[in-house]
Amino acid sequence: MTEQVEIFEVGPRDGLQNEARLISTADKVALIDMLSQAGFRRIEVASFVSPKWVPQMADGADVLAQIDRVESVSYAALTPNMRGFDGAVKARADEIAIFGSASEGFSKANLNATIDESLARFADVAAAAKAEGMPMRGYVSCVTDCPFDGEVAPGDVARVVAALRDMGAYEVSLGDTLGRGLPERVDAMLAAVLEEMPADRLAGHFHDTAGRALENVDVALARGLRVFDAAVGGLGGCPYAPGAAGNVATEALDAHLRERECDTGLDVNVITQAAEIAKSVRRV
Ligand code: HMG
Ligand code: MG
């Protein structure tokens, strides 16, 4: 039987944020407009973070203002704090995401805060999102390995997932930020997380540094997950995770899922064209 599996496109945000050269707003908009034709339900297009931390994402409001919005697509943005939340609301993002870490080293490097400090900030954002009726997703980074602290214990991931759940995240995306997660450790992590949140409210977010992202997708599929984040053209990395390669490529994930009789509902021709745009934006 064909299974429905959703690919959540994160290329315009997670992919492009790591590019050293400043990419023009027009190029970002062209990429997003192409992606909007592919059949995605959700596309992450911006981050309302400090431009000192991630200069590449400084034009998020312009990007959201200039894209041709497709009614059926939810355009998502990252918001680390209330300032980011206010920016995302003003720019008419359809949903927001708060993003924590399961490891202290990455939390400090990415958010300049301990895990508990970051969760306290997110609680304000979550309350505001609830009051606005704004859907809120959660991310947990470094679910198996941290570039600063090494191996991450499954229980540490489950604790942050539970905190994001309690704040009202409708779904939590589990990030192998470094892309070095071994399938057996991903499986152990999922076993712990599933004690806190059901599979239909979890997403897999695998980077492909060690070339094992698709194996990790299979592990997550076997655990019942049906949503995976990916970036066209395998764009990405993470500015605060030295050594992290790109996200698993949308087109490779889509082909992999089809081989497993999973239906993503995506138009292969359009994602192929979007991957070409992504690669050319990167090359210029
Ligand atoms: P801080 O320096 O501790 O905060 O950074 P601050 O409050 O002192 O602010 C510093 C400056 O930024 C101030 O400006 C603020 O006004 C400004 P100044 O007074 O110096 O001129 N500022 C902002 N500007 C615009 N929008 C904002 C904002 N907030 C403060 N929202 C902070 C703390 C959280 C702001 C910072 O650490 C930050 O922006 N971090 C974001 C880093 C980031 O975006 N990382 C990549 C995304 S996470 C990721 O990729 C992983 C993921 O894909 C999953 C996975 O793969 O694992 C999600
Ligand atoms: Mg990521």
From TrEMBL:
Write out the GO biological process terms.
Answer: ketone body biosynthetic process; L-leucine catabolic process
Q: Which keywords belong to this entry?
A: Lyase, Metal-binding
List the CDD domains.
DRE_TIM_HMGL
- Start and end residues of each Pyruvate carboxyltransferase domain: 5-272
| A Pfam family the protein falls into | HMGL-like
InterPro entries named among the record's database cross-references: HMGL (IPR043594), PYR_CT (IPR000891)
What residue intervals traverse the membrane? none
* Lineage: superkingdom: Bacteria
Molecular function GO labels: hydroxymethylglutaryl-CoA lyase activity; metal ion binding
What's the family? Belongs to the HMG-CoA lyase family.
Entry protein name: Hydroxymethylglutaryl-CoA lyase
